[in-house]
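#structure-requests
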Amino acid sequence: MRQSRIRLGASQWPGARTAEPMRRRVNTLTIFRNHPVFSKLPRASIEQLGTYLTKRKVQRGTAIFRKGDAGSELIAILSGSVKISAPGADGREAVLNLIREGEIFGEIALLDGRPRTADAVAMSDCELMVIERREFTALLREHPELAFKVIEILCARLRQTSEQVEDLMFLDLPTRLAKAVSRLVDEAGGAWPRKISITQRELSQLIGMSRESTNKQLRSWAQAGWIRLERGSIVVLRPDALARGV
């Protein structure tokens, strides 16, 4: 595998802070040994992969890439969360996925070499790990088991997208909203009550409804004691009640 550096500089990501190479091998090994995609790689491969990576910090609201951009990198989230969305001609957007710590994104354009299929925007301050396409595809050729893991991720996201389409077609607003909040709170994990960091606008985009309708339903649940609304987040107090709503 030929060593090279990521050519995308911090100045090319609005809001990006200074890019820094991953100099500490111990940190690199820890990251990859705990990562669901890379954890099965041999130690030597993880050490080699670490030489091709950079870490970048981006501020909340930063556009990491836009639909139509060249798909030349795979990105993993070390901390924070990223919104994947498709922009509409009328200025609205459909939220396709929320990517969180420990997950990767940008894999579709990375694998087929075609332009990005959606926007990726930081929902919070994020620390990202970036690897170029030519380095990652070389790694896939050397380790076919890694390719199968990426395929698993693609399949899981395709299933989720298919389920979202079905929900839009067949479920009413309260059921769609309850299902979305329940899924997000399950992904968040931790002790109860659990908080999910998402604005009401982002949540409405995720379920394909207006912000006003979403806000009305959330306030109804807040009055019933199922949830608590906070600035930029929702605290789930009664997951059992939401589950019955689903």
